[in-house]
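Re: your question from the hallway

Yes, I did run it. Sequences:
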Amino acid sequence: MSYITQDKLVILGAAGAIGSNMTQSALTMELTPNVCMYDPFEKGLEGAAEEIYHCAFPGASVTWTTDIGEALSDAKYLISSGGAPRKEGMTREDLLKGNTEIAAQLGKDIREYAPGLNFGVIIFNPADITGLTTLVHSGLAAGKIGTLAALDSTRLQTALAQHFGVEQDDVTGCRTYGGHGEMMAVFQSRAKVAGTPLTDLIGTDKLTEEDWEKLLERVKQGGKRIIQLRGRSSFQSPAHQSLLMLKAVMDGQGYPWPSGVYVDDASAGFEKIMMAMETELGSEGLSWSIPEGTEEELYELQASYQHLAKLRDEVIEMGVLPSLNEWGKVNPNL
Amino acid sequence: MSYITQDKLVILGAAGAIGSNMTQSALTMELTPNVCMYDPFEKGLEGAAEEIYHCAFPGASVTWTTDIGEALSDAKYLISSGGAPRKEGMTREDLLKGNTEIAAQLGKDIREYAPGLNFGVIIFNPADITGLTTLVHSGLAAGKIGTLAALDSTRLQTALAQHFGVEQDDVTGCRTYGGHGEMMAVFQSRAKVAGTPLTDLIGTDKLTEEDWEKLLERVKQGGKRIIQLRGRSSFQSPAHQSLLMLKAVMDGQGYPWPSGVYVDDASAGFEKIMMAMETELGSEGLSWSIPEGTEEELYELQASYQHLAKLRDEVIEMGVLPSLNEWGKVNPNL
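Structure:
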């Protein structure tokens, strides 16, 4: 095995479906031999760690702990899938409060134990808001924390490939920005199917307006569909794609999909938010630009931002995030 | 991505925990872009396939089907985790009959649809017996079907590393042969811990006889322990290690653990059986030799063989395997 780096990677939520898959995949991808598995659920964590030991990755030095300080200490890379799932009788607000509180604590823990973190990916729901909350409390530079945003785009690519009966790679330029699922802004103007612009296909016999609307709905409900089919939330694709984000920071070879990134540019109409933008992922983390698109697409992106800003403001009202004008005090990098 | 081969790999049981993990890992390992997922459970299979599509592996051409003929057609590589689990009220014999019947049908299907199979790994329980049954009915050459046997050895390596507090790689030469779990023959005479022969450590303060017995018991119960800890059977390590077996056949770079292999050498005391031996895995599949060991170890190996032979004879009595002198008629390669 020739690992890309020797830097410590900590996987938070490692007893869960996403986290345990991620541990195995990180080693299979040969990212780093130094992986620390963290989870508050000790028994399941030990079981997940045993599975990894039985894989016998050459040169690997995998540890596990229920102590967050030990887990984060000296960590250079981090992925957290460690939110709480929505439970029976829980309102959307309960979930938002619970998971942003977890994110705020994670941010504080990063500040205390891993101030030298090079890059972290936050993937527990609602990821843009938990990522933002983590970043604010972590004290890190804006580009050091990102969220997974690729799956909406890969689901669009999948659905178009299936509709047209072509290989997935033959569908290019699929891009969704802003928030996820219902909130996403689909940028169709740059997508091509086997070289033909998608906009030349929509509204023809090959893809009627009605088919396109159905397809978009399917993409937006992509996560729910996995639950219906498998009886469980998606875990393989989030694990795989978030590791590719880390890989890009480690090897500098780039990442082909949009990521959720901290955006604060009042002149562009986006303030103090985390959302999927056109992004680059390199050794210093994330940088972003406003995606190219039609007026309508950019309007959708602004609407998606507004939706996220409302969620962010709810979290401020809950007291989990400071008010906007206080962010610089909590995190001088923002 | 630079895949090792373009040959078709079919994963049987792809809707399950092992099979779906294997599909993701096979693509992460860049074995081949041409992966076909098969499972009789259509809904779960589609869900597992969607997850893989959302991973968006570059260049991948992943298909899924509930038609075994379509799945096996032109397949060069195969892994089957597609047995039935033991259910409430089922006796050991019920399980043996059920799973060997599945294996016999798989062998017949290979004969019909994939006579050009280059290598197949069978990993549903009891794997040595299901692998043997598959081989006999497949008509393939003996080295073309193998079973996963590594986990007993990697569990021994894990347990020794944990006991001595050393890195896993510092424990070398861990080898178990014969059958699995209770049936395994542990060859301790070649194992070393940080360079010191294990036999020099057993019976000292560093590893008392009692500790060693406990450790061995833990290795033998390694699978059960995963179930106790995680509430589910191990799936990550079997997926990973069986893919490494395929990888060795594809890339000719070797495989570091013993595999289950067809053994028929009356002069050596092993007839018409599949069991873990010292093996080499190359482009032509498996070849084997009798492991080096002490007299006691070789006696244990013979005892393990006898146990497996008894199971095999039960399957013959059930009518799922032909009587021993008829095997050449069913499979002229044996």
